Amino acid sequence: MQFYLDAFRTGDPELLPPNPDPAMLADTDALPDEVDVLIVGCGPAGLTLAAQLSRFPAIRTRIVEQKDGPLMFGQADGIACRSMEMFQAFAMRERVEREAYWVNETAFWKPSAERPGEIVRSGLIQDVEDGLAPYPHVIINQARVHQFFLDIMARAPNRLIPNYHRRFAGLEIGADAVTARIERLDDAHEGEIETVRARYVVGADGARSSVREALGFRLVGDAANQAWGVMDVLAVTDFPDIRKKCVIQSEREGNVLVIPREGGYMLRIYVEMDKLAGNERVTDRAIGLDDIVRAAERIFRPYTFEAKSVSWWSVYEVGQRITDHFDDASPTQGARDPRVFIMGDACHTHSAKAGQGLNVSVMDAFNLGWKLAAVLDGRAPAALLSTYSAERRAIAQTLIDFDREWAAMMAAPLKSPAVPHGVDPAELQAYFVRHGRYTAGVATRYARSALTGGTEHQALAKGFEIGTRFHSAPVVRLADAKAIELIETMEADGRFRLIAFADRGDPAARGSKIRDFCEFVAETLAPRFTPRGRDIDAMFDLRAVFQQGHRDLDLRAMPAPLRPAKGPLGLTDYEKMFCPHFKSGVDIFDLRGVDRERGALVVVRPDQYVAHVLPLDAHAELAAFFAGFLIPVAA
Description:
Residues 445-632 form the Phenol hydroxylase-like C-terminal dimerisation domain. The chain is built from 13 helices and 26 strands. By secondary structure, it is α+β, with helices and mostly antiparallel strands. The strands form 5 sheets. An 8-stranded mixed sheet has the order 6-5-12-13-14-11-15-17, with helices on both faces. Helix 1 packs parallel to helix 4 (142-155), helix 1 (44-53) runs parallel beside helix 7 (357-376) and helix 7 packs antiparallel against helix 8 (386-411). The longest helix is centred in the middle third of the chain and has 26 residues, at 386-411.
């Protein structure tokens, strides 16, 4: 991280100076009459969006929640590799890694052929393939993830703190704003209605979303008519794989998913319970904690399982549902830009078996956050916001389709001559391996659009596939020889990254491709789109990766735009240039298939997805790409 750009300050560098305008501070109990963004719901999606918008002092953001305080127990716990990359952008990845359980292997268990009623291990596999991501798949209490986001918000310039005891009570959509009604639930003000005029409202209020209901949208889909129990438990057991993620198929007692939790002792266990009738809901069955524990004991045989303490448990029904629209600008309402959005469980619900709920939800927010910031900052037209629903609904549909298939396999009976439609343990394991990239969160691919370029030049950087997340690799920073993952430079600050991979020539030579490109960015591209008075890299974060080793280059001879003067003191930013990490035996040019003769430009969106791959000399094409969705500054 970089700090002290304007002056030295003692104390925690992550505690940013407060906004000098008291009216912008968001740590008050009363809601203001007007805001830029009103977020409803303090789940993972809502807090991700709030944390991102809190980075922008000029944007007035408020987040309301009907509960009386932060989440304490239960709910999601699996953090995919891709989400860890996003957490890195928020500078919270190391906190998660330090506390979390790391999923290294997954064990598969099946019924014993020799001992009826008992289980035996059928397979043991690496959880995530080598090289897929720089960070691990981990397990941590969702409440801790919430707290990390809350800490970021509280340290931001506007000191954003949620307003609890607030229930969303309705909205009216106007031509230039949305009027939201918020009912207070706290004892001192119970029943009082606050009216907030917001430029944008975002519903992140869960599967029973009041914001979605106010828009007249429904979750459409079906239920699997299968009840599952889940518990966070401290248990004594002789089951040998209890500290590994496990998928267990029993002969007649149902299936179990074991997820070791952080701390070394706790477990989360999903237990298959009763099949439901077509018109029956899980609430119609009186399934209690004892039923879940007894079912787990039967499935673990011949091993013992003794639940000593259960901190949280629930019973739920598997179902897959999705809304048709993720914003209020549906085609039936005519052509206009959206003002109300829904995210996370408010627009897609599914089972917990693949651990995708939290992960897809935070990506909804990461997609929308930078777009809202760009529009509210005047850097992009409001039409940009329509791309949120266009991009994320397609991803949600893929999730629903995958979850329907995976949940059905998890609940299917064991395949046998008497049950030919069942699932063989080998099939289940093979399916898990085959979809490993999806469950790691790295299979998302955005279709070609104004934000995602064509593939005409993809061969210049084969490993940075357009429309997919930026696949990081290790590099060495030229200025100080520090080895880092390149994705560590991509913060959640709303900027586009221009990663210029140099060709084989001398980068210091006058007329070199890399020098000409850097000068084009500094003299033409950045001035065209960067608001006056801001640093040269406020819109486009230009960085270069050279082919030479870091000891073979003279920092002072590199193109001047890679050593920009920044801040009120005109300090030099020395962290823009990188070289291959030869000591690790990995060269990013080889690892990601970058053309050594021609070099390549990789354009990365603020949400870490590759927007385009272009030749270094495609100056006009790059300018035209950004002109398609950004607003040039006034002459």
